[in-house]
Amino acid sequence: MEKPIFKEKFIERYSKLTDWNKFEKASTEWLRKSIRVNTLKISVNDLKKRLETRGFVLTPIPWCKEGFWIEGERTDLGNLLEHALGYFYVQESASMIPPIVLNPEENDVVLDVAAAPGSKTTQIGQYMKNTGIILANDITGDRLASLGINVQRMGLKNIAIMKSQGQFIKGKFDKILLDAPCSGTGTIMKSARSANDWNPGLIERLSGLQKKLIAVAFNNLKSNGVLVYSTCTMEPQEDEGVVSWLLEKFPNAKLEEIKLNIERSECFTSFEGETYNPEVKKCLRIWPQDNNSEGFFVTKIKNVQ
Q: Which of 64, 182, 232, 267 is labelled catalytic?
């Protein structure tokens, strides 16, 4: 595991945002392995029994009824027969949150703006029980190849894959997931590069892209449709700042409370001299140290026309 390099400005910034010592500790420890059972192919209890008879210990993830933290002598979960058969997806526990918040229903028309490699897309398809349609988009061929493989492995038949820049997609959807490209500072324990490459200029550029993507996504919502905006960064400019910008630009965008059995932290209503819409308090912000998981930010937005 590559060791992250925390720049002086990074430490200074994150010491203002959270308890630095706890954040640093959580960001440099091994991340617990977790899986999501694919109920399209096997029941939760049946897969649990199969893995437990082989010596694995499965601990339920409180916010996802199909999710488990998993421990065992083998750590190469991707080489297990059950994985090849599509009985489970190796997915980080916090990554399971956005599809749960989106709450897709059978026969919905759903857009996943940045879908590859497919953890959240296949989770959405699973919840829709292979009905309706999911337009799964991404921008690079390699990522789309991974998406296609995972869609097939998980036995999904309601997914159409598309290659496009998210800001150019046009259509009307019941539900939209925008798991936005971000600086990834909630995932340093998995990718040291998120800390090594960090700089304020990068945050500024990503924030601009995220605003373009969220505006297009909201415009593609049907009346009373739901948009979930999520990132795996802890940067207020990419999180509360982007959501606040959307609320000011679109009066018909309304935030909804996110009720989950999860430890959470207070959202920011201001940062570095910029004041955000107080509604951002309804967003879900979890730091890596909150649940011994990746850090995540999730927002549920309704188009109330």
A: 232
